[in-house]
Recover the amino acids of this structure.
Protein backbone atom coordinates (compact mmCIF):
# COMPACT_ATOMS: atom_id res chain seq x y z
CA UNK A 1 0.00 0.00 0.00
CA UNK A 2 1.61 3.26 -1.04
CA UNK A 3 -0.88 5.86 0.18
CA UNK A 4 -1.78 6.86 3.68
CA UNK A 5 -5.56 6.97 4.24
CA UNK A 6 -5.05 9.45 7.10
CA UNK A 7 -3.48 11.98 4.73
CA UNK A 8 -6.48 11.71 2.35
CA UNK A 9 -9.03 12.48 5.02
CA UNK A 10 -8.43 16.22 4.83
CA UNK A 11 -9.95 16.07 1.31
CA UNK A 12 -13.26 14.79 2.73
CA UNK A 13 -14.82 17.49 4.91
CA UNK A 14 -17.72 15.23 5.94
CA UNK A 15 -15.31 12.94 7.78
CA UNK A 16 -14.64 15.81 10.22
CA UNK A 17 -18.32 16.08 11.05
CA UNK A 18 -19.19 14.87 14.55
CA UNK A 19 -22.32 12.75 15.04
CA UNK A 20 -23.71 13.08 18.58
CA UNK A 21 -20.23 14.00 19.78
CA UNK A 22 -18.56 11.00 18.08
CA UNK A 23 -16.31 11.46 15.04
CA UNK A 24 -18.18 10.02 12.04
CA UNK A 25 -16.96 6.57 11.07
CA UNK A 26 -18.35 6.08 7.58
CA UNK A 27 -18.23 2.40 6.61
CA UNK A 28 -21.12 2.23 4.12
CA UNK A 29 -19.14 2.83 0.94
CA UNK A 30 -20.72 0.01 -1.05
CA UNK A 31 -23.95 2.02 -0.86
CA UNK A 32 -22.30 5.32 -1.77
CA UNK A 33 -18.93 6.93 -1.13
CA UNK A 34 -18.00 10.42 0.04
CA UNK A 35 -16.68 13.02 -2.43
CA UNK A 36 -13.30 14.72 -2.13
CA UNK A 37 -12.90 18.50 -2.24
CA UNK A 38 -11.23 18.22 -5.69
CA UNK A 39 -14.34 16.62 -7.25
CA UNK A 40 -16.65 19.16 -5.60
CA UNK A 41 -14.41 21.97 -6.89
CA UNK A 42 -14.72 20.60 -10.43
CA UNK A 43 -18.51 20.79 -10.12
CA UNK A 44 -18.19 24.41 -8.95
CA UNK A 45 -15.70 25.24 -11.75
CA UNK A 46 -18.09 23.84 -14.33
CA UNK A 47 -21.02 25.88 -13.04
CA UNK A 48 -19.02 29.07 -12.47
CA UNK A 49 -16.91 29.01 -15.66
CA UNK A 50 -18.59 26.90 -18.36
CA UNK A 51 -22.22 26.28 -17.58
CA UNK A 52 -24.12 25.86 -20.86
CA UNK A 53 -25.86 23.07 -22.74
CA UNK A 54 -23.81 20.74 -24.95
CA UNK A 55 -23.95 19.89 -28.68
CA UNK A 56 -26.43 22.71 -29.33
CA UNK A 57 -25.26 26.30 -29.05
CA UNK A 58 -22.39 27.74 -31.09
CA UNK A 59 -21.31 30.26 -28.42
CA UNK A 60 -18.07 29.95 -26.47
CA UNK A 61 -19.66 28.59 -23.28
CA UNK A 62 -21.59 25.99 -25.25
CA UNK A 63 -18.44 24.92 -27.07
CA UNK A 64 -16.50 24.80 -23.79
CA UNK A 65 -19.15 22.67 -22.05
CA UNK A 66 -19.22 20.30 -25.04
CA UNK A 67 -15.44 20.00 -25.02
CA UNK A 68 -15.37 19.25 -21.26
CA UNK A 69 -18.15 16.66 -21.51
CA UNK A 70 -16.55 14.91 -24.49
CA UNK A 71 -13.16 14.90 -22.76
CA UNK A 72 -14.82 13.28 -19.72
CA UNK A 73 -15.99 10.42 -21.96
CA UNK A 74 -12.40 9.98 -23.16
CA UNK A 75 -11.15 9.98 -19.55
CA UNK A 76 -13.69 7.27 -18.66
CA UNK A 77 -12.66 5.20 -21.70
CA UNK A 78 -9.04 5.40 -20.58
CA UNK A 79 -9.92 4.53 -16.97
CA UNK A 80 -11.43 1.15 -17.98
CA UNK A 81 -9.22 0.48 -21.02
CA UNK A 82 -11.96 0.92 -23.65
CA UNK A 83 -10.90 1.31 -27.28
CA UNK A 84 -12.59 4.69 -27.70
CA UNK A 85 -15.08 7.12 -26.19
CA UNK A 86 -17.68 5.83 -28.66
CA UNK A 87 -17.94 2.83 -26.32
CA UNK A 88 -18.73 5.01 -23.27
CA UNK A 89 -22.37 5.95 -22.67
CA UNK A 90 -23.02 8.24 -19.71
CA UNK A 91 -26.18 7.20 -17.87
CA UNK A 92 -27.58 7.98 -14.42
CA UNK A 93 -26.25 4.90 -12.63
CA UNK A 94 -25.58 1.17 -12.89
CA UNK A 95 -29.29 0.42 -12.76
CA UNK A 96 -29.98 2.57 -15.81
CA UNK A 97 -27.04 1.04 -17.70
CA UNK A 98 -28.31 -2.49 -17.06
CA UNK A 99 -31.87 -1.53 -18.00
CA UNK A 100 -30.55 0.05 -21.18
CA UNK A 101 -28.98 -3.24 -22.28
CA UNK A 102 -32.06 -5.23 -21.22
CA UNK A 103 -34.30 -2.88 -23.22
CA UNK A 104 -32.12 -2.35 -26.31
CA UNK A 105 -30.04 -5.45 -26.86
CA UNK A 106 -33.03 -7.51 -27.92
CA UNK A 107 -34.17 -5.11 -30.66
CA UNK A 108 -32.04 -3.93 -33.55
CA UNK A 109 -32.48 -0.62 -35.38
CA UNK A 110 -33.21 -2.50 -38.62
CA UNK A 111 -36.30 -4.00 -36.96
CA UNK A 112 -34.71 -7.44 -36.56
CA UNK A 113 -34.26 -9.16 -33.19
CA UNK A 114 -30.99 -10.20 -31.56
CA UNK A 115 -32.91 -12.53 -29.26
CA UNK A 116 -35.85 -14.78 -30.15
CA UNK A 117 -38.38 -16.62 -27.96
CA UNK A 118 -36.69 -19.64 -26.43
CA UNK A 119 -33.25 -17.98 -26.32
CA UNK A 120 -31.61 -18.02 -22.92
CA UNK A 121 -30.14 -15.45 -20.58
CA UNK A 122 -28.01 -16.57 -17.62
CA UNK A 123 -27.74 -14.60 -14.39
CA UNK A 124 -26.27 -15.72 -11.07
CA UNK A 125 -27.82 -16.16 -7.65
CA UNK A 126 -25.62 -13.35 -6.30
CA UNK A 127 -27.00 -10.58 -8.53
CA UNK A 128 -28.15 -7.25 -7.12
CA UNK A 129 -31.83 -6.69 -8.02
CA UNK A 130 -30.55 -4.24 -10.69
CA UNK A 131 -29.03 -7.10 -12.66
CA UNK A 132 -31.83 -9.55 -11.98
CA UNK A 133 -35.19 -7.82 -12.25
CA UNK A 134 -34.54 -6.17 -15.68
CA UNK A 135 -33.70 -9.63 -17.08
CA UNK A 136 -36.63 -11.29 -15.38
CA UNK A 137 -38.91 -8.65 -16.91
CA UNK A 138 -37.25 -8.79 -20.36
CA UNK A 139 -37.49 -12.59 -20.42
CA UNK A 140 -41.18 -12.50 -19.47
CA UNK A 141 -41.87 -9.86 -22.14
CA UNK A 142 -40.01 -11.61 -24.95
CA UNK A 143 -40.53 -15.29 -24.19
CA UNK A 144 -36.87 -15.82 -23.28
CA UNK A 145 -35.70 -18.31 -20.66
CA UNK A 146 -33.89 -17.02 -17.58
CA UNK A 147 -31.39 -19.42 -16.03
CA UNK A 148 -29.76 -18.84 -12.67
CA UNK A 149 -26.22 -20.03 -11.91
CA UNK A 150 -25.79 -21.24 -8.32
CA UNK A 151 -23.04 -20.81 -5.76
CA UNK A 152 -20.63 -22.98 -3.80
CA UNK A 153 -20.94 -23.17 -0.03
CA UNK A 154 -18.20 -20.55 0.38
CA UNK A 155 -20.16 -18.03 -1.69
CA UNK A 156 -18.09 -18.32 -4.86
CA UNK A 157 -19.74 -18.98 -8.21
CA UNK A 158 -20.18 -22.69 -8.97
CA UNK A 159 -18.22 -22.68 -12.23
CA UNK A 160 -18.93 -26.30 -13.30
CA UNK A 161 -22.68 -25.66 -12.77
CA UNK A 162 -22.40 -22.38 -14.67
CA UNK A 163 -20.68 -24.13 -17.59
CA UNK A 164 -23.46 -26.72 -17.63
CA UNK A 165 -26.06 -23.98 -18.05
CA UNK A 166 -24.38 -22.71 -21.22
CA UNK A 167 -25.99 -24.14 -24.33
CA UNK A 168 -26.77 -23.46 -27.95
CA UNK A 169 -29.63 -21.12 -26.99
CA UNK A 170 -27.57 -19.02 -24.52
CA UNK A 171 -27.24 -15.50 -25.86
CA UNK A 172 -26.20 -13.44 -22.86
CA UNK A 173 -24.54 -14.00 -19.49
CA UNK A 174 -25.29 -11.20 -17.00
CA UNK A 175 -23.06 -11.46 -14.02
CA UNK A 176 -21.85 -9.24 -11.23
CA UNK A 177 -18.09 -8.79 -11.14
CA UNK A 178 -18.11 -8.43 -7.34
CA UNK A 179 -21.04 -9.44 -5.13
CA UNK A 180 -22.41 -6.57 -3.05
CA UNK A 181 -23.41 -9.10 -0.37
CA UNK A 182 -20.64 -11.71 -0.33
CA UNK A 183 -17.75 -9.58 -1.55
CA UNK A 184 -16.82 -12.50 -3.84
CA UNK A 185 -14.85 -11.52 -6.95
CA UNK A 186 -16.11 -13.55 -9.88
CA UNK A 187 -13.54 -14.87 -12.38
CA UNK A 188 -14.71 -12.48 -15.09
CA UNK A 189 -12.17 -13.49 -17.74
CA UNK A 190 -12.95 -17.18 -17.32
CA UNK A 191 -16.68 -16.44 -17.47
CA UNK A 192 -16.13 -14.36 -20.64
CA UNK A 193 -14.14 -17.19 -22.26
CA UNK A 194 -16.86 -19.75 -21.41
CA UNK A 195 -19.65 -17.45 -22.64
CA UNK A 196 -17.84 -16.65 -25.88
CA UNK A 197 -17.01 -20.32 -26.52
CA UNK A 198 -20.77 -20.98 -26.30
CA UNK A 199 -21.50 -18.11 -28.71
CA UNK A 200 -22.90 -15.86 -25.95
CA UNK A 201 -21.95 -12.38 -24.75
CA UNK A 202 -20.97 -11.23 -21.25
CA UNK A 203 -22.46 -8.24 -19.45
CA UNK A 204 -20.59 -7.45 -16.23
CA UNK A 205 -22.14 -5.46 -13.40
CA UNK A 206 -19.10 -3.50 -12.24
CA UNK A 207 -20.85 -1.43 -9.55
CA UNK A 208 -18.70 -3.03 -6.83
CA UNK A 209 -15.58 -3.76 -8.87
CA UNK A 210 -14.70 -0.63 -10.87
CA UNK A 211 -14.39 1.51 -7.70
CA UNK A 212 -12.18 -1.04 -5.94
CA UNK A 213 -10.04 -3.07 -8.36
CA UNK A 214 -8.04 -2.44 -11.51
CA UNK A 215 -10.63 -3.15 -14.26
CA UNK A 216 -9.66 -3.32 -17.92
CA UNK A 217 -12.46 -4.23 -20.31
CA UNK A 218 -10.10 -5.52 -22.95
CA UNK A 219 -8.18 -7.87 -20.68
CA UNK A 220 -11.47 -9.04 -19.10
CA UNK A 221 -12.90 -9.38 -22.62
CA UNK A 222 -16.39 -8.40 -21.42
CA UNK A 223 -18.92 -7.12 -23.95
CA UNK A 224 -20.74 -4.72 -21.63
CA UNK A 225 -19.78 -3.20 -18.26
CA UNK A 226 -22.00 -1.05 -16.04
CA UNK A 227 -20.95 1.09 -13.06
CA UNK A 228 -21.96 4.14 -10.98
CA UNK A 229 -20.02 7.34 -10.31
CA UNK A 230 -21.36 7.80 -6.79
CA UNK A 231 -19.73 4.55 -5.62
CA UNK A 232 -16.29 5.80 -6.70
CA UNK A 233 -16.04 9.33 -5.23
CA UNK A 234 -18.03 10.88 -8.10
CA UNK A 235 -21.31 12.81 -8.02
CA UNK A 236 -24.75 11.25 -7.80
CA UNK A 237 -26.66 11.04 -11.07
CA UNK A 238 -23.86 9.82 -13.33
CA UNK A 239 -22.86 6.30 -14.32
CA UNK A 240 -21.31 4.52 -17.25
CA UNK A 241 -22.35 1.85 -19.69
CA UNK A 242 -19.39 0.47 -21.62
CA UNK A 243 -20.37 -1.55 -24.68
CA UNK A 244 -18.29 -2.94 -27.53
CA UNK A 245 -18.75 -0.50 -30.39
CA UNK A 246 -20.14 -3.01 -32.87
CA UNK A 247 -22.74 -4.14 -30.32
CA UNK A 248 -23.84 -0.60 -29.44
CA UNK A 249 -24.12 0.08 -33.16
CA UNK A 250 -26.41 -2.93 -33.60
CA UNK A 251 -28.73 -1.87 -30.75
CA UNK A 252 -31.83 0.32 -30.92
CA UNK A 253 -31.76 3.62 -28.99
CA UNK A 254 -32.96 3.62 -25.38
CA UNK A 255 -34.68 7.02 -25.10
CA UNK A 256 -35.76 9.14 -28.05
CA UNK A 257 -35.47 12.94 -28.33
CA UNK A 258 -32.89 15.69 -28.69
CA UNK A 259 -29.21 15.03 -29.44
CA UNK A 260 -29.68 11.32 -30.16
CA UNK A 261 -30.88 11.94 -33.74
CA UNK A 262 -29.02 12.62 -36.96
CA UNK A 263 -32.07 13.59 -38.99
CA UNK A 264 -35.79 13.94 -38.36
CA UNK A 265 -38.45 14.23 -41.06
CA UNK A 266 -42.17 13.64 -41.00
CA UNK A 267 -41.42 10.28 -42.56
CA UNK A 268 -38.95 9.09 -39.91
CA UNK A 269 -35.70 9.68 -38.05
CA UNK A 270 -32.13 8.42 -38.09
CA UNK A 271 -29.73 8.15 -35.17
CA UNK A 272 -26.64 10.07 -34.12
CA UNK A 273 -23.16 8.54 -33.82
CA UNK A 274 -22.12 6.68 -30.69
CA UNK A 275 -22.28 7.35 -27.85
CA UNK A 276 -24.79 10.19 -28.39
CA UNK A 277 -27.34 7.82 -29.90
CA UNK A 278 -27.84 6.58 -26.32
CA UNK A 279 -27.74 9.97 -24.57
CA UNK A 280 -31.09 11.58 -25.39
CA UNK A 281 -31.95 14.94 -23.82
CA UNK A 282 -29.78 17.15 -21.64
CA UNK A 283 -27.50 14.96 -19.51
CA UNK A 284 -25.94 15.82 -16.14
CA UNK A 285 -23.01 17.56 -17.79
CA UNK A 286 -21.33 18.79 -14.61
CA UNK A 287 -21.53 15.34 -13.01
CA UNK A 288 -19.98 13.75 -16.13
CA UNK A 289 -17.07 16.18 -16.01
CA UNK A 290 -16.62 15.63 -12.26
CA UNK A 291 -16.57 11.86 -12.80
CA UNK A 292 -14.09 11.63 -15.67
CA UNK A 293 -12.16 14.91 -15.33
CA UNK A 294 -11.10 17.20 -18.18
CA UNK A 295 -8.79 20.10 -19.05
CA UNK A 296 -10.29 23.56 -18.80
CA UNK A 297 -10.57 24.68 -22.46
CA UNK A 298 -9.18 28.14 -21.66
CA UNK A 299 -6.65 27.78 -18.84
CA UNK A 300 -5.69 24.18 -19.82
CA UNK A 301 -5.66 23.37 -16.10
CA UNK A 302 -6.97 19.97 -15.14
CA UNK A 303 -10.43 19.93 -13.59
CA UNK A 304 -9.97 16.67 -11.74
CA UNK A 305 -12.65 14.03 -11.81
CA UNK A 306 -13.19 11.15 -9.41
CA UNK A 307 -11.32 8.93 -11.85
CA UNK A 308 -8.26 11.23 -11.66
CA UNK A 309 -8.38 11.06 -7.88
CA UNK A 310 -8.53 7.25 -7.89
CA UNK A 311 -5.83 6.96 -10.58
CA UNK A 312 -3.51 9.18 -8.57
CA UNK A 313 -3.83 6.73 -5.66
CA UNK A 314 -3.51 3.71 -7.98
CA UNK A 315 -6.21 1.05 -8.29
CA UNK A 316 -3.78 -1.73 -7.29
CA UNK A 317 -2.88 0.27 -4.17
CA UNK A 318 -6.57 0.81 -3.37
CA UNK A 319 -7.09 -2.94 -3.65
CA UNK A 320 -4.15 -3.61 -1.31
CA UNK A 321 -5.47 -1.06 1.22
CA UNK A 322 -8.95 -2.59 1.24
CA UNK A 323 -7.55 -6.10 1.55
CA UNK A 324 -5.62 -4.96 4.61
CA UNK A 325 -8.81 -3.52 6.15
CA UNK A 326 -11.02 -6.53 5.47
CA UNK A 327 -8.34 -8.90 6.81
CA UNK A 328 -8.13 -6.77 9.97
CA UNK A 329 -11.94 -6.80 10.23
CA UNK A 330 -12.27 -10.56 9.68
CA UNK A 331 -9.64 -11.41 12.24
CA UNK A 332 -11.10 -8.94 14.77
CA UNK A 333 -14.76 -9.87 14.32
CA UNK A 334 -13.80 -13.57 14.44
CA UNK A 335 -13.04 -13.10 18.16
CA UNK A 336 -16.56 -11.77 18.90
CA UNK A 337 -18.83 -14.63 20.05
CA UNK A 338 -21.86 -15.48 17.86
CA UNK A 339 -20.79 -13.64 14.69
CA UNK A 340 -21.41 -15.20 11.28
CA UNK A 341 -19.69 -13.66 8.24
CA UNK A 342 -20.62 -14.41 4.63
CA UNK A 343 -18.53 -14.93 1.52
CA UNK A 344 -15.22 -16.61 0.66
CA UNK A 345 -12.81 -17.35 3.51
CA UNK A 346 -9.87 -16.79 1.17
CA UNK A 347 -9.58 -13.01 1.22
CA UNK A 348 -7.82 -13.02 -2.18
CA UNK A 349 -11.18 -14.09 -3.63
CA UNK A 350 -13.02 -11.18 -2.10
CA UNK A 351 -13.18 -7.45 -2.59
CA UNK A 352 -13.52 -4.73 0.03
CA UNK A 353 -16.72 -5.53 1.89
CA UNK A 354 -17.89 -8.02 4.52
CA UNK A 355 -21.50 -8.79 5.48
CA UNK A 356 -22.24 -10.34 8.84
CA UNK A 357 -24.89 -11.22 11.41
CA UNK A 358 -24.81 -11.68 15.14
CA UNK A 359 -26.66 -14.67 16.56
CA UNK A 360 -29.98 -13.64 18.08
CA UNK A 361 -29.53 -9.96 17.16
CA UNK A 362 -31.69 -8.00 14.75
CA UNK A 363 -29.30 -6.50 12.15
CA UNK A 364 -31.35 -3.29 11.99
CA UNK A 365 -31.16 -2.82 15.75
CA UNK A 366 -27.44 -3.54 15.79
CA UNK A 367 -26.87 -1.01 12.97
CA UNK A 368 -28.94 1.56 14.86
CA UNK A 369 -26.91 1.05 18.02
CA UNK A 370 -23.70 1.41 15.99
CA UNK A 371 -25.09 4.61 14.50
CA UNK A 372 -25.54 6.01 18.02
CA UNK A 373 -21.77 5.63 18.33
CA UNK A 374 -21.19 7.49 15.06
CA UNK A 375 -20.58 4.34 12.99
CA UNK A 376 -22.45 4.19 9.66
CA UNK A 377 -23.01 0.68 8.26
CA UNK A 378 -25.72 -0.74 6.02
CA UNK A 379 -28.35 -3.16 7.33
CA UNK A 380 -31.07 -4.95 5.38
CA UNK A 381 -31.57 -7.23 2.44
CA UNK A 382 -28.82 -5.49 0.43
CA UNK A 383 -31.08 -5.50 -2.67
CA UNK A 384 -30.50 -9.21 -3.11
CA UNK A 385 -33.64 -11.09 -2.01
CA UNK A 386 -32.93 -14.27 -4.01
CA UNK A 387 -29.47 -14.64 -2.45
CA UNK A 388 -30.61 -13.82 1.09
CA UNK A 389 -33.45 -16.25 0.83
CA UNK A 390 -31.06 -18.99 -0.38
CA UNK A 391 -28.87 -18.22 2.65
CA UNK A 392 -31.93 -18.38 4.92
CA UNK A 393 -31.54 -14.76 6.01
CA UNK A 394 -33.84 -11.76 5.93
CA UNK A 395 -31.16 -9.18 6.69
CA UNK A 396 -27.47 -8.60 7.31
CA UNK A 397 -25.08 -5.85 8.33
CA UNK A 398 -22.50 -4.80 5.76
CA UNK A 399 -19.11 -3.26 6.52
CA UNK A 400 -17.68 -1.62 3.40
CA UNK A 401 -14.56 0.53 3.74
CA UNK A 402 -12.89 2.73 1.13
CA UNK A 403 -9.74 4.74 0.51
CA UNK A 404 -10.10 7.07 3.52
CA UNK A 405 -10.90 4.45 6.14
CA UNK A 406 -8.26 3.40 8.64
CA UNK A 407 -7.40 0.37 10.74
CA UNK A 408 -8.39 2.41 13.80
CA UNK A 409 -11.93 2.74 12.42
CA UNK A 410 -12.08 -1.00 11.76
CA UNK A 411 -11.02 -1.66 15.35
CA UNK A 412 -13.66 0.84 16.54
CA UNK A 413 -16.36 -1.08 14.63
CA UNK A 414 -15.23 -4.47 15.97
CA UNK A 415 -15.02 -3.28 19.58
CA UNK A 416 -18.38 -1.51 19.33
CA UNK A 417 -20.05 -4.68 18.03
CA UNK A 418 -18.44 -6.64 20.88
CA UNK A 419 -19.65 -4.16 23.51
CA UNK A 420 -23.17 -3.84 22.11
CA UNK A 421 -23.62 -7.60 21.95
CA UNK A 422 -22.23 -8.03 25.46
CA UNK A 423 -24.45 -5.51 27.18
CA UNK A 424 -26.96 -3.72 24.98
CA UNK A 425 -28.96 -6.27 23.05
CA UNK A 426 -28.59 -9.89 24.07
C1 LIG B 1 -23.57 -5.01 -7.49
C2 LIG B 1 -24.48 -3.83 -7.65
N1 LIG B 1 -25.13 -3.66 -8.81
C3 LIG B 1 -25.94 -2.62 -9.02
C4 LIG B 1 -26.14 -1.67 -8.06
C5 LIG B 1 -27.05 -0.52 -8.34
O1 LIG B 1 -26.32 0.67 -8.33
P1 LIG B 1 -27.10 2.07 -8.50
O2 LIG B 1 -28.04 2.15 -7.34
O3 LIG B 1 -26.01 3.09 -8.43
O4 LIG B 1 -27.78 2.01 -9.80
C6 LIG B 1 -25.51 -1.80 -6.82
C7 LIG B 1 -25.76 -0.84 -5.74
O5 LIG B 1 -25.51 -1.07 -4.59
C8 LIG B 1 -24.65 -2.90 -6.63
O6 LIG B 1 -24.00 -3.07 -5.47
Amino acid sequence: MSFDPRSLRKDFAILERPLDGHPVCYLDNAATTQRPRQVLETLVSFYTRWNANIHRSPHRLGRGATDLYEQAHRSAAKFIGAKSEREIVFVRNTTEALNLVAACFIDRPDGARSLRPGDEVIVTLMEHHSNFVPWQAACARRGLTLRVAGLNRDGTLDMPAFRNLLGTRTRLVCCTHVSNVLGAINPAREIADCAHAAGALLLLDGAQSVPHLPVDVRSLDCDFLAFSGHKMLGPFGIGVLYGRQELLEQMSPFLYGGDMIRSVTLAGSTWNDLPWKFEAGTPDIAAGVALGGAFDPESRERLPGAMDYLSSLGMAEIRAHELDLIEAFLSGIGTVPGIRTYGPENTRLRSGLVSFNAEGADPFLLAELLDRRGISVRAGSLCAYPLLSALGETGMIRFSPYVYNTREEVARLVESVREILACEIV
About this structure: The mean pLDDT is 96. The CA atoms of residues 93 and 239 lie 4 Å apart.
